[in-house]
## 1
Amino acid sequence: MDFLLNPDWSKINAQSVLIALGHAFFTLSLGMGAMLTYGSYMSKKDNIPSSALQIVFLDTIIALIAGIAIFTSVFSVGLDPAAGPGLIFHTLPSVFIQMPGGFIFSILFFVLLSIAALTSAISLLQVVVSYFVDERKWNRHKAVILMTFYIFLLGVPSVLSYNLLDDFTIFGYNFFDLVDFIASNVLLPLGGMLIAIFVGWIWGFDKAVVNLKEGAEKLLDERPWLITFWKIFLRYFSPILIFLVLLHSTGILVKILDLFN
């Protein structure tokens, strides 16, 4: 609890901020097709600014609850809290073995994890399914079955990365870690940067505001500074900050700084 809730402010620097921004991309599903697809199903009565704030708030609260549940258990048995994605499959099972009633808790945990994975898979599958249904005029059943099959095949090496394919590495990564690195560290910030540039400069900020005001006209008309604030960030700060996140997450920024040092 002290580790989570009593931060060492002296360690807050530019690098830690970039790491936090990179994590925000992943946990909020920014820079990917999921939010665009969800947005296409929103009605004109939905309040986008309010919805965005609620999502950020609830995501943060759930992350804190998960952190308290997981890291207190990991620290209590003296295991490494920095195991990354492997924490679920390597560290946590060791925690369950050592705790009273761990067998029952392990079953409950992995059942809930399976539900979370299944709902996330359905959510992300909708992105590619929507494309083939809307743009290619495929039958929805055909799109769902074929895309599920292809994605399942692509996921098999990830499943085997910590057992049968444990010794198989690409650029020092096993298949699961490589896919995780490409998706989280490259594609998400790259997608976010391109979306910010497209909305702010190509599609046009004024057109974006028209859509933003649907369902939130009173809120934004009474607070015009919000639109100005968003415009400045969207056009100038967001692309630059996201580009720095991209350079940092891929390790390029560290190499550039090493050259100057």
## 2
Amino acid sequence: MEKNGGILELQPDIFRIKGHGTSSHSYIIKEDYAKLLIDSGVDANFPTLQKSLLKVGLKIRDIDIVINTHEHFDHIGANRYFQDHTLIAAHRFAGTKMIVDDRYVTFYKSADLNDIPFKVHPWLESESRFDLGNYSLNIIHTPGHTSESICIYEPSRKILFTGDTVFAGGTLSYIAESGSVGDYINSILSLSTRHILEIYPGHGEISTSPEEDMEKAVQNAKAFLQSEDDVEFTRFKEDNTGLPPFPD
């Protein structure tokens, strides 16, 4: 059920906070053992994130863990408001880029308000696991969009948080500087072996037909390798600020 401020309760105690402008969506898992946030979004979207957290009964300091699906600015920008009192978790390849301030890869060379060093506490590997109580989260390394992209699988509900790896409709993700179309295809094929009922992506709508959408994503990626003109391809388009925005 959609609430004011773009909050959608997807599962009991799992909420999506819609990202606006260039920001990714953020996902809250409000469990007994820990309160967890997947992707903080851009710095400029933080007031919306803070208000939305309050609407589900949480303050910023109530969040125990933030997991970043990858290192792009539209997913990590608001980390600054959490990282001094909250564990920031990311794949180890993303952690390297975040803490050394690699702005070419993170897109901070042209983006957002944030201008402080990032912190990463747990450096994740594939098959890392978070036990939150009623939910557990399994980390899956899914290179393609970037070299360090991860998806997060919850096996009891059979749901998958995909960041920018899989979108509803099978739209092909932008393949970033550290990414690879070949890795992308391999990651999607690997994900497709799991029983997934719903996909919760970093942008756009929820996927309720994961099998079809992943199959289409692979087809689009293979077509892109043959001819860029023959595939629906999601690209960043530069606006007059130099930011590479995603559509809402």
